[in-house]
Amino acid sequence: MTSISQNAIDILRENDRGTYTVPTKGLYPFQWNWDSCLTALGQRHFDENRAWTEIETLFEHQWPCGMVPHIVFHQKDDGYFPGPDIWATDRPVPTSGITQPAVAGFALKRLFDRAADPAQVAPRAAALLPKIAAWHRWFFATRDPKGEGLVAIIHPWESGRDNSIDWDIPFDRVPTDGIAPYTRRDTQHADPAHRPTKAQYDRYLWLVEHFRALQWDTARLHDASPFQVVDPGFNAILLRACADLADLAETLGRSDLAAENRAFAARGLAAMEGLWSPDHGQYLARDRVTGQLIDSASVGGLLAAFCAIPADRAAIIAETIDRHATRYRVASHPPQDPRFDAKRYWRGPVWLVVNYMIADGLARAGQADAAARITASSLDLIRENGFAEYYDPQSGEPLGGGRFTWTAAMVLEFLS
Ligand code: DGY
């Protein structure tokens, strides 16, 4: 019988396009930003050199302003919408014009720390270091214009949690008038009942067309967007990446980048306190347009445990996960909320990448048992239901795309 680790390696090899990896064939035929960084963590278990290449390829497509786009369209493929013609970002190799969770700094440090021979990979780490630092600088310059210490996403796709209940209220502000007619491709590859709705797609596209009309000038987009949300999960990933990059920069003799990133992390961690909800026992997103916390206890507020939140907060998050418990943890939204939908993308299903980051953060914060429960549940899910994009947290039914790259990568990490 083939082991799940061998299955995971087979999937990573199957989706490898030489210098980058597609999340899955058909549904996502290009390179996605945070998928790639997390994929590298899986690749390191059987081909370290290839793991470094994955992240290096992504950063070859960094914009001069410092932004790292959320999709790189390496080759033509009409099976995906919206493709390069819709984005029209005018890059040498076409890319999208928005970004994604900044997990690269964390991934780089993990690749370096766990390298067979750190001295051998040090030059590759040293070359990526200033690029990742430029991305972090871009985030705080353009997405935190008032210097609050936390950054806003300006499109739900940036969060990676596209249709989370967190965005429902701020997303209502996004108009849909005047958008060009379009045909979705995602619903030809996956069950439409498991994907975002048409009303959400109309708004996704309105924002893309709006930013395109501003010529993708990333310095102007935050203030011009009717959707500005401070997501605790997104910020936790960035703040963890800043702290990890600072440590690595120190090791590699770049004390300038270390100081800069340590300052970002310290300021951001202090500001995270403003997102804490004692009633929910977790962090909540803030709508920056209204200044209000959004009453939605999604997994984004639990993912906050990925950065160095205070130990007592991490303990409460561990309890909240137990309280919300579904057969497979951690649901992207708790079933106790009437808005929960067990099968619709980020409105209920379990995602292994999020489990991995929550478990990692909880373990660092001294919550070893809670972390172990997430790891065990994640591996049960895969053994019983295979390698899907996401899963029903109650039945374990596999949903979305199949033979999914980052799910496979996370399995190799969970097993290590
Ligand atoms: C999609 O197309 O579903 C993606 O999540 C956007 O990046």
General form: globular
- Derived structural class: mainly alpha
The percent of residues in helical segments reads: 40-55%
Which stretches are low in confidence, meaning pLDDT under 50 for 5 or more residues running?
Answer: none
Which molecules other than protein and nucleic acid are bound? (2R)-2,3-dihydroxypropanoic acid
* Overall mean confidence score, pLDDT: 97
Total E-strand runs: 8
Tell me, what is the CATH class? Answer: Mainly Alpha
Order of helices and strands: HEHHEHHHHHHHHEHHEEEHHHEEH
Head-to-tail CA distance between termini: 20 Å
The Rg value, from CA coordinates, equals: 20 Å
Major sheet: size, sense and barrel closure? 2 strands, antiparallel
Strand order of the largest sheet: 1-2
The CATH level-2 architecture is identified as Alpha/alpha barrel
- The helix tally amounts to 17
Describe the structure.
Helix content is 49%, strand content 5%. It is mainly alpha-helical and 416 residues long. The chain has one domain (4-415): Glycosyltransferase, CATH 1.50.10.10. A hairpin with a 4-residue loop joins strand 4 and strand 5 (282-283). Helix 6 crosses helix 12 and helix 12 packs antiparallel against helix 13 (255-272). The longest helix is centred in the first third of the chain and has 26 residues, at 118-143. It binds (2R)-2,3-dihydroxypropanoic acid. (2R)-2,3-dihydroxypropanoic acid binds at residues 70, 157, 162, 186.
